[in-house]
Amino acid sequence: MAKITGGCLCGGIRYEIEGDPFRIANCHCDDCRKATGSAYATNLFYQEDQITLLQGSPKRFDHIADSGNSMFKEFCDNCGAQVFGGGSMRPGVKSVKVGSIDYANFVKPQVNLYLSHALDCTLIDEELDCFDAMPPPA
Ligand SMILES: [Zn+2]
Ligand SMILES: [Zn+2]
Fold first, then answer.
1. Which of the listed CATH numbers 3.90.1210.10, 3.20.70.20, 2.170.150.70, 3.40.50.300 matches domain 4-130?
2. pTM for this structure?
């Protein structure tokens, strides 16, 4: 995978990413639902240094997840679109929201997380590794 580009809805924030994500997860937790405004979030996980901000500076919101971890969301303070996220359990790692990526057809999710919180109307891909919450630590 070469470089990919993305940004927020208004274009105020633009980024580019070098190399592959080390994990792609569909997260059905309540926090992802609230933060994205969607039924669930598809998150691509990258090392922070793979991501280069080309334009704009995301506003940051910090919160505590039900796991007890402190989490952050980074979003455009003009259009409100969330582009990045992260948390204290994985320092140096950022998640990128699939919807912020310009051409995202390469994305193949590997896992479903927090299925115990999934909406009844959400179609679940049972072929993926499925977890009721987070996977147990490796
Ligand atoms: Zn924007
Ligand atoms: Zn989540």
1. 2.170.150.70
2. 0.94
